[in-house]
Amino acid sequence: MARLETVLFIAREPLSSRKLAQLADLADGTKARTLVRALNRQYDVENRAFRAVEVAGGFQLLSSPKFAPWLRRLCSTPVEVRLSGPALETLAVVAYRQPVLRVAIEAVRGVQCGEILRQLMERDLVKMVGRSEELGRPFLYGTTKRFLQIFGLRSLEELPRRVWLDRDETLSKPTEEMQTPQGDSPTDSPCPEAENN
Hints:
Helices cover 47% and strands 13% of the residues. It is α+β, with helices and mostly antiparallel strands.
C-alpha cells in the first residue's frame, strides 16, 4: 500500500490500475484497485484532506473540494479553466457527438466554429481523433483526457444523458400547477437577501 501511495503522490496525471500495478510492483490492476479502496478507507478514518479519485480513466491523488478556495489563494497559477459561452457550446457538441465533423458541429450551433475549435485544441480539451471517409476526408474531433480531468469525469459515460436534460428543461418551464397560491403575494419573499434589495 505504501508503494501504491508513493506512486499516486508523485503522479502528475491519472494512472490506470494496470499502470499503478506496474509502477508499484503489484500483481495486477485488480490488486491496485483493491489497495486504492483500502487507502481511501484509511484516509476517511484519519479524516485526511485528500483521497485517491478515479478520474479520466485512472486514479489520481487529489485534495478535497472543500479546500479549493484556500488552495486557490496559495497557487500562483490559475487553477480554473474559464470558457466563453460559445466555447462551452462547441465543447458540449463535441463531447456528446464525438467523433464529429466540424460541419456537424456548425450545423448544431448555426455558426462557424473553426476558431473556437482551435482554441479548445490549444487548451487540450479537444483533439483530432481521425478522418472521415467522406469526400475530402475531413477531420473528426473528440474530447481529450484533460477534458475528463477538468470536468471530474471517469469516462464519457458519466456525461448527463438527454433524459436528464429534458427533465431539467421541463422543471424550468412554468406550468399552471406552479402558480402563486392564493393569499401569497409575489412580492412577499421568504428570502432575506431579496428583502434587503
